[in-house]
Amino acid sequence: MTHLPTLVRAVYTGFEWGIIFYVSGINAIYFFLMVLGFFALRSYRARQTPETREALLNSPMLPEVSIIVPAHNEAVTISQSVRSMLNLNYPKFEVVVVNDGSKDDTLDVLIKEFHLCKSTFRSGTAITRPVRAVYRSRDPIRLTVVDKENGGKADALNAGLNVVRSPLIAAVDSDSLLEDNALLHVVEPFIDSPGKVVATGGIIRVVNGCRVERGRVTRISSPRQVLALFQTIEYLRAFLGGRVAFSFLNSLLLISGAFSVFDREALMEAGGFATTTVGEDMEVIVRLHKRGHQKKENYRIVFVPEPVCWTEVPERWATLHRQRNRWQRGTVESLIAHRCMLFNPRFGGAGLFAMPYFVVFEMLGPVVELLGYAMTGLGVLLHLVSLQVAALFFVASILFGVLLSMSAVVLEEYTMRRYPSVSDLGRLLGAAVLENLGYRQLLTVWRSEGVWDALRGKRGWGAMERRGFQRDAARA
Amino acid sequence: MTPERKSRISVLSKTLAVGMAYVLVIVVFHRWYLAPRMTSLALSVAVAVALVQCATIVAMLGISLLLKLTAQFQEARSARISPRILELLALHAAENGRAAEIERLRRIYPRLVEQCLVEFLRMVRGGGREALSELAADLGFVQQWRRDSRGRGISTRKTAVAHLALVSRRFAGPALLGALQDDDETIRLHAARNMIRNADPAELAQIFGLALNGSRVTRMVLAEDLRPHALELASEAIPAALTSGVPSRMLAALDVLRAWSKFLPVPQVYGLLRHSDPAIHAAALDILPFVPRLSPLEAEVLSALNDPAEEVRAAAARAAASIGITSAVPLLSHRLHDQDPSTAAAAAHALAHLGSEGCRILEQEMLTGSLLAASAALEALERTHFSPAETVAV
Asked: Which of B46, B60, B215 has the CB atom closest to A396's CB atom?
């Protein structure tokens, strides 16, 4: 083995150096984003004036918001979600649920719970799958339900866009619960910079393990179930580190589809939601960047570092697998669709920093990581690299993962402090270590599979399992 | 340089400083500790990176647990001691003779006494507030807050201004007035909000000026706070803004008037009905229902319905509906076919509000009009006359 041809050795050494540079680069970027996120978050919080919110809520100058909720087979959670939305602390809003051809009794639940009756409707300009009927509530609540044939989430959102007229549009997942002041938090940037802000989003939190009563989270607790706990860490890391930093640099390419708000005019101009991708949330944001730069507008896409929305995360491996596969496919599809922005100075920070970051680290990252593991193993077998160095390389990358996860938990504890007890914190810190020992590597495999599926043109969402919020209430 | 830009630069420089410090620690550890002890350079660098990461992880673990435990300890101590402090403050507010005992507690628990005093000051008025303000000055809190109100940190300044606003004006006055000139808008807003309650007319005018020159959030918040003083402001401050000739100030003043939607004696609005800036013209039309009708309005509104600017036409349609100008019906029915959808929608809405003739036109448009006019008519009728009880239950 030690007498391998020089060329093979040279190629291998070159490859190993490439991997080392890649890993160093990704670590440096993640570290930069996390530290930037920390200081940006601190600066944001120093400027917050929660005392003004009461006055803002009383102001007739607040813009009206239409909340569009696409629902497909959501009979278990839809009632609580809609109730949570109707209870929002915001004076001017309407809720539009779009039943996207559900095969379960989602529509029946809505009709029964909210006393719906058929109403007249007129179609807008967006082309969607046929609408069967529009319902409105007989109760004094502003709830509209659009019943349409199945066409996917983006199609449902477009159908919702057709029946609303407000200047601001909120897209909310039906399995999400919103905080009372959620709408006000995410609308504030639109008020602060009128005409400049085209989209906003906030922090999405994991509801598993929390107590939920009447569509509201009444007791916050970290999940007991290990898979949900690991995902809690992932969410903290993604939102408190990455998104705060990207927003600060005005290079945010992704606002979670679970809860995002758009300027209606900008969204319609950009062409609504794309039905050709499973990552419509990322795709629409990339398109808004493109539109802003093409029109030479001084636009902004803002991430609001306030906890605004609670979502149920998968507690089964198979469901999580499908979800991550879909997310990765969505990322790849969006990046390929807008590849003209890559390294293009015309698109500012989005083209020169965010797009390359997403392509190099988010899209190709899992593939490179897998290759790195495989080649290091091969190098050890062929005695091209010592076991000691390989082990150290592996340990250093694990430690870096722990460092980032731990930073996210510390950031949460330093700024938000939403998890009240020491045992919650202990669980989160424990998960920050353990998720790097197997779970993250498994996600790497799934994400690589997602890249492959996207490249071979796989479509479809895959079934998502809903367990309902009441289960946690009963247990808590 | 704007405060926002300053803050961005500060965030970026702090980030770079932390990153460089982190790299420096690794380099120092490698160069002066590990390299002399190890044969391989790569191994030395890798071990240095791994060990510094380990140390950072342990530090973070310690920090987060320490933060949590400290918060819990403080909470427990506050629950134990605060009732006693609050009781003493209540007695002092009523009888004014517990200063010595409170001073003794302040020496042991300065933060807790300050918190309780602030909490109590929020609840009392009149003599009690005077007594507690004096106590705050005697205990040195007022001096501390004054110093903090000129400090460097935004949070510190904001907290200090909020606390100063709670004490009597003879202690806090100059400091609050100073805060109105602060570099940071959130602090100016904070100071203004806290001053409104006891402000004299000159201060009210100054705060109104802040509302006009500030961001939209500042304007919205101050407009609500200034609402009870609208009549007072209508005598001088509002007319001055409306006749200032500065478009941004004029628009902001109209914005505030629209938010109040109060009947106010500001005839200066009439002067803006022929303004060359369509935004000001439209905003003035929106205010018309809330100003005294000194001259015939109909001609102004009817002429605005034919204005070349679409926002003016839409505002004129809204004004016709709110004032009830029935003679505008023929022009409004014409506007149903306006190229601008929002003008068509406003015209439809106005027709729905202008009695049976307007509704008849809308019904006719639903059957025979263009797609845009028909849908605007349908929506206006549904929004104005929709009654859930009339619809058929499923």
From this structure: B46
